[in-house]
Amino acid sequence: DAAWRISDKAAGCSWILHKSGERDTISGTSTELCVASPLMAEALAVREALLHAKAGRLSNICLKSDNQVLVKALNSKQHPVELYGINLDIEKLSSSFSSITFAYVPRTLNSAADALAKTALYYLNA
User: Record's InterPro entries (predicted)?
Assistant: First the structure.
């Protein structure tokens, strides 16, 4: 998930990785500067999640996002102009996995990742 602040075009990105059959999760955050839009922030969060999933040697991925526009773009491979480069990175990373799906989840089911992203953005200026 991502949180975006219009005043300085900063974003907090977060991801939570659940390994199948394990109770523990792996989560992380990053911050990004010069992010043009909330949609771009979400795409950057997806790219970070995939980089960490690849580093964790995960092979089957179901990436869930509460951003319908982004999920639709990733599934159709019709990239909005503002996301073209980031979505190409995501597409290339996707080939690292045995299987990958992109699914939409309602925001109410994404609250843990949302809280992490907002915290990362909050502490960017702290």
Answer: RNase_H-like_dom_plant, RNase_H-like_EbsB-rel, RNaseH-like_sf, RNaseH_domain, RNaseH_sf
User: What DSSP element (H or E) covers 55?
Assistant: helix 38-55
The helix-helix angle for 68-76 and 84-94 (nearest 10°) equals: 60
- In total, the chain counts a number of residues equal to 126
User: What residues does 64 pair with on adjacent strands?
Assistant: 103
Q: Which DSSP string do the residues of 20-49 spell out, in sequence order?
A: TT-S-EEEEEEEESS---HHHHHHHHHHHH
Give the pLDDT of the chain (126 residues) as one tens digit per residue. Answer: 999 999 999 999 999 998 877 788 889 999 999 999 999 999 999 999 999 999 989 999 999 999 999 999 999 988 888 888 999 999 999 999 999 999 999 999 999 999 999 999 998 875
SS3 78: coil
Can you give the pTM of this predicted structure? 0.93
